[in-house]
Design brief:
Number of helices: 6
Largest sheet: 2 strands, antiparallel
Order of helices and strands: HHHHEEHH
Shape: elongated
Strand content: 5-15%
Length: about 150
């Protein structure tokens, strides 16, 4: 009979598999982003700006992305330099700067969403439709079960 110390470390194996899958997704994403000239962090910021109904403030973005405001400034500088976002004055407070996504930024997002969809299809190819649904449910349970202060 196996003792607890000699039993396979199934949680450790799961953790390793999740890390390998995450790295694979990151490699695929980096390959997709590189020709477009955008970093993963810039892509995340662009997606976040696009989710706001009204252009967000820099502080809103820092809070939403869980980064320091200086990091948002650097990301916005890079995206603004290539025409994907623009800084705009707040109509009610001249000291506040809002970040607007441009038409170029929207086009980049559409292109990257299509590329991401293709990458996900590639990764999920070995799974049946039922397995994909189960995986989606499991991932949702894991994400929803995370304490709020650990989510990114």
């Amino acid at each position: 009979m196996d003792s607890p110390d000699s039993a396979p470390d199934s949680d450790g194996l799961l953790a390793e598999q999740l890390l390998r899958l995450t790295r694979r997704l990151q490699r695929i994403q980096s390959r997709q982003l590189e020709p477009i000239g955008i970093t993963p962090a810039q892509f995340r910021l662009l997606r976040t700006v696009a989710h706001y109904e009204d252009p967000p403030r820099m502080a809103d973005l820092a809070l939403r992305l869980d980064v320091v405001p200086r990091a948002v400034t650097t990301l916005v500088d890079g995206l603004e330099a290539c025409g994907r976002v623009r800084r705009a004055p707040d109509p009610t407070n001249r000291r506040v700067v809002r970040i607007e996504i441009t038409d170029e930024g929207r086009a980049v997002l559409r292109s990257l969403r299509n590329a991401r969809r293709t990458a996900v299809q590639e990764i999920l190819t070995p799974l049946t439709t039922g397995q994909r649904e189960v995986l989606g449910g499991l991932l949702t349970a894991l994400v929803d079960g995370m304490p709020e202060h650990h989510r990114r």
